[in-house]
Design a protein that fits this description.
Layout lengths: L19 E4 L3 H14 L10 E5 L37 H8 L2 H7 L6 H12 L6 E3 L1 E8 L4 H8 L4 H4 L9 E7 L2 E7 L1 E4 L3 E3 L11 E3 L3 H4 L10 E5 L3 H13 L4 E5 L20 H9 L2 H10 L10 H17 L4 E4 L2 E9 L2 E8 L5 E6 L1 E4 L3 E3 L3 H4 L31 E4 L5 H4 L9 H23 L28
Parallel strand pairs: 1-2, 1-7, 2-3, 7-18, 9-16, 10-11, 10-16, 11-12
Antiparallel strand pairs: 4-5, 5-6, 8-17, 13-14, 14-15
Length: about 500
């Protein structure tokens, strides 16, 4: 999988050029690292895929602010990082249990759904094997066309066009990923990048987080240390799983406080986890969704949003209802379910925050002095184009301004940008379906991206090899100097 840099002579290499730089090292790119390791284990060092990952956290972490005691996964342990692609992988959850000495105990537990704390430990166990391939505590500042001579070339010639900066062929075969960390700026050169930067919090319009206004992802970073609580009240905004878990956690953790759960619905809605509906999380469903007409994709996302978005596990709904009912019986109501209401405003006060809640049915408003407001208002995908700078103009979009993404998860680009840009996560939901931001298809998707990298590496090698004169020429005519055999276009 070697390829010449655009500024070098054919056949030469730039020292340290990687086949892949992964941006972000959460579960998605961790699964990709494992898939690449599987390939490398069966190849010589010269045939290995060389990858480096960049992660802004100081160590591996997956939603650590919501690793609540007792909270369970909503996905089977069999949908770990590898099993759906390679059940015999040493990186499976079952191998993790064996290594931790809990395999028999887990079997006796008779569950498909481990706690999130345990699954997080499984992720960390896997990530430890790739410590040397990850640059933690580093944030990507830019992704640009390679290489170090481009700026000098622009100064000398006045050229600014992307194709002109990267050599006479007018193509970009490699990218420079510049990172910033404690040790300063570093540039990594790669033939491909895989963007797996996850999600960012979605906040209500005009609302900013602060000392006593948190998004739920930071719950465990703030709540345990909140000792100054003069109002003995929390307000939780949102109707999904995280909102319900947050309300339950605060209610259990602060037995002297009132917890107000505010959402527009009349009550929490259960997640549809029935067997037929769960087929939308199958790997085969990605193929079907990708090939469907645009209007059908829109319909499917609407039909099955209740498998994932703004819904709550049925057992947790029952538990919260029992709690609210028992408190009514006892006459001391600490869990207040404020349905059919909206969170209208919040204002910091000297010793807390004042939240305004408006009834959707009657229109009346209620001011609540709270010790903290927790916004369990969901997430949105990070925008890959923000990382790409000038290269964003080489990426093709659809009629709605969304990136066009191939079935192999590669962003479709102009012919000038031949370096691969691959996406993992919710930024591909419009092309690959509802599983894009979930764990369900990580194992299969990582194998697809790995195989796409290998295919494109082979194509790149073929471009480097001049055609043998006369081969394949039906008329007996020799191929012209420097011509290359035809190469099938990649799916991306």
């Amino acid at each position: 999988m070697s390829a010449p840099h655009a500024q070098t002579t054919p056949g030469s290499r730039v020292p340290g050029t990687r086949d892949l730089v992964g941006i972000g090292f959460g579960p998605a790119n961790l699964a990709l690292a494992i898939a690449i390791e599987e390939h490398n284990a069966q190849r010589t060092s010269g045939e290995a895929v060389h990858a480096t990952f960049v992660e802004r956290q100081e160590g591996f972490g997956w939603h650590r602010g919501m690793l609540l005691e007792g909270a369970t996964m909503q996905v089977s342990f069999l949908k770990d990082l590898v099993t759906m692609r390679n059940p015999g992988s040493p990186y499976s959850f079952v191998h993790y249990l064996q290594d931790r000495g809990r395999l028999a105990d887990f079997v006796n537990h008779k569950t498909f759904f481990p706690t999130r704390i345990e699954f997080h430990d499984y992720f960390r166990w896997c990530a430890a094997a790739f410590r040397d391939q990850v640059r933690y505590g580093a944030e990507v500042a830019s992704v640009t066309a390679a290489g170090p001579d481009a700026a000098d070339l622009a100064d000398l010639t006045g050229l600014t066009d992307l194709a002109e900066l990267t050599g006479s062929p007018g193509t970009v075969d490699e990218l420079d990923v510049t990172t910033r960390g404690a040790d300063g700026a570093t540039t990594l050169r790669a033939r491909n990048v895989v963007i797996g930067t996850g999600l960012e919090p979605r906040l209500p319009a005009g609302i900013e987080t602060g000392e006593r206004i948190w998004h739920n992802r930071d719950l465990l970073y703030h709540a345990p240390g909140l000792t100054d609580r003069p109002h003995r009240r929390f307000l939780v905004v949102g109707a999904g799983q995280s909102a319900a878990e947050t309300a339950d956690y605060l209610h259990r953790t602060f037995p002297d406080a009132e917890v107000c759960a505010v959402f527009r619905r009349y009550g929490y809605s259960p997640a549809d986890d029935s067997p037929f509906a769960n087929r939308i999380f199958d790997p085969a469903a990605v193929d079907a969704f990708y090939g469907a007409p645009q209007e059908v994709k829109h319909q499917l996302l609407g039909y099955h949003a209740n498998t994932n978005y703004s819904v709550v596990d049925g057992d947790l709904i029952e538990q919260l209802y029992r709690t609210a009912y028992q408190e009514k019986v006892s006459g001391t109501q600490r869990l207040r379910i404020m349905g059919a209401s909206e969170f209208a405003a919040v204002t910091p006060t000297g010793n807390g925050v004042r939240a305004t809640v408006r009834s959707l049915t009657g229109g009346e408003t209620l001011a609540l002095d709270c010790d903290a407001v927790v916004l369990a208002t969901g997430y949105r995908p990070t925008d890959p184009l923000e990382l790409l700078g000038e290269l964003a103009g080489e990426c093709r979009t659809d009629g709605q301004g969304r990136l066009r993404v191939g079935r192999d998860h590669r962003v479709e680009t102009t012919g000038r940008l031949r370096a691969g840009i691959y996406l993992q996560g919710a930024a591909t939901e419009h092309t690959h379906g509802i599983t894009s931001s979930l764990l369900s298809t990580l194992a299969v998707r990582s194998g697809e991206i790995r195989d796409a990298l290998l295919l494109r590496g082979t194509e790149r090698e073929l471009r480097r090899v001049p055609a043998v004169a006369g081969v394949g020429a039906g008329s007996g005519a020799a191929a012209g100097p420097g011509s290359a055999p035809a190469v099938p276009a990649s799916r991306g």
